[in-house]
Each structure stands twice: as C-alpha cells, then as structure tokens.
Amino acid sequence: MKKMTVAVLIVSLSSMVYAKSHGKVYSPAQGVICDAKSGFCSDDEGISLGMTKEYLGEKAAKKWEKILSDKDFDPTYYSMSNGLYCDTHKKICKKSKWDDNADKHWTHILFGK
Predict the structure, then answer these.
(1) Predicted model pTM
(2) Where do the domains of the chain lie?
(3) pLDDT of 5-23, one tens digit each?
C-alpha cells in the first residue's frame, strides 16, 4: 500500500512540475492542445468545441460556442495564453505569432509532424 502511495505522489509531483513549466497550456492527448487560462482546446482543425467540452467542461464549451458563432471569427488559427500560435492551414505551431520557426514540440503534438 505504501509503494502505491509513493507512486501516486511521484506522478502528482511530476504533473505539477510539468504544469508549472508549461503554464496553463497542456496536451491531454496526442492531437489535442488545451489552454486552461483561455478556456479552450484545439485539434488539427482548430478550436474544438468537442475537445473543449471533454477536457475543460460544459461551461467552457458554452462560452466558446458563442464566440465561434461569430462569422468573422476564424478558429483555424489562434494564440494561447503562453503566446503559442497555431495555424491549422499551414499545420504549424510557433512560440509566437511573429516567430518564423516551428515549435517542434507543440507542432508534433497537434499535427504529428
């Protein structure tokens, strides 16, 4: 029983270190990036209501449903609270909108490249 408690503690601490080092932006699964601070998740097609609901809850999904109903809002490219910028047409994520180079880590997570 003690070994299991220690293992759970190690996993919990690892998760806390990961969350702290990456802010509120995280990947709950391959092909998905979520931003808890901004309240949305995305997949390889853009901001996703389904992923947002699954990983951040009904309230976040309802908020983004209203935002996405605006015909002038394009959910296929977006910035996250840590500056990460993803463009689903070009299949790339960058550290910022103005960065020329792909962020290999996030691009691989979202697009598998």
Answers:
(1) 0.77
(2) 23-111
(3) 333 334 333 343 344 445 6
